[in-house]
Amino acid sequence: MSSSSVSDGLLQFATQYSFYSGCITFSFGVIAVQYSTFFFYPVLFGFLPIIIASSFSILAYHNVRRIVRRQLPVVRRKLDKQITAMVLMRVIAFVCLVLPYNAYRIYAVNFPTSQSMPMAYAISRLLQAIFSSINLINYVINFYIFIIFSSRFRRQVKFVLVKKCRQRWKYWCCCINNRIEPSNIEPRNSQIESEENI
Q1: Dist. CA 198–CA 192, nearest whole Å
Q2: What is the value of pTM for the model shown?
Q3: 145, 78 in Cβ contact below 8 A?
Q4: Distance, C-alpha 195 to centroid of its chain
Q5: pLDDT digit string (tens) for 53-69?
Q6: Sorted alphabetically, which keywords does the UniProt record give (predicted)?
Q7: Which CA distances in Å does 148 have to 60, 90, 165?
Q8: Calpha distance 57→101 (Å, rounded)
Q9: Strand partners, 26
Q10: Cα(5)–Cα(10) distance, rounded to whole angstroms?
């Protein structure tokens, strides 16, 4: 296979545009559909991150079980258990929030809906918006999972919000001068003039 035939194929694939309402949109070819169906969404965006996250959470779980058997301080063991619980819950949330979007994207790429059927197109766009929102929750949920499952994290958040941020807010908004000043201040020049007049 010569490099010119590869570049011609890529050029032909890349130049398939459809003009609709003044916007240039990229239309998928057969190769792109196969790539996204069999590699991108199932492997790169789906199972590979899930497998990596799950394997590391299982390794952390086994590590904590080994630490419990060793002679370590009770506080350290308790903190390790909390961190492991947080990691396990994070992985479970990750799997539950990523899989629906991946499944829908594989379906949508293989069976696209035409804009000539407005009801089916509107339903597919609604489903895409719902599953995209569920997928985006994946990036926001860490804070809430950690608040629920870790008392140490709750204490740290309370310390930061109440002690640090509240003190800064008080300083910025309620700036209080701690200086004592007289209530009637006259300029120095007027005092000098009054002394000269006497």
Answers
A1: 10
A2: 0.61
A3: no
A4: 72
A5: 889 888 888 887 777 66
A6: Membrane, Transmembrane, Transmembrane helix
A7: 20, 11, 22
A8: 22
A9: 17
A10: 9
CB 128 within 8 A of CB 94: no
Closest to 103 (Cα-Cα) out of 41, 49, 48, 51? 41
SS (H, E, C) the chain: CCHHHHHHHHHHHHCCEEEECCEEEECCCHHHHHHHHHHHHHHHHHHHHHHHHHHHHHHHHHHHHHHHHCCCCHHHHHHHHHHHHHHHHHHHHHHHHHHHHHHHHHHHHHCCCCCCCHHHHHHHHHHHHHHHHHHHHHHHHHHHHHHHHCHHHHHHHHHHHHHHHHHHHHHHHCCCCCCCCCCCCCCHHHHHHHHHHC
Question: How many Å apart are CA 133 and CA 137, to the nearest integer?
Answer: 6
Cβ-contact 134, 100 below 8 angstroms: yes
Structure tokens at 49: 């991150």
List the Cα angle 41/43/47 in 5-degree steps.
Answer: 100
Tell me the average pLDDT across 164-181.
68
Mean pLDDT is lowest, of 52-56, 154-158, 184-188, for: 184-188
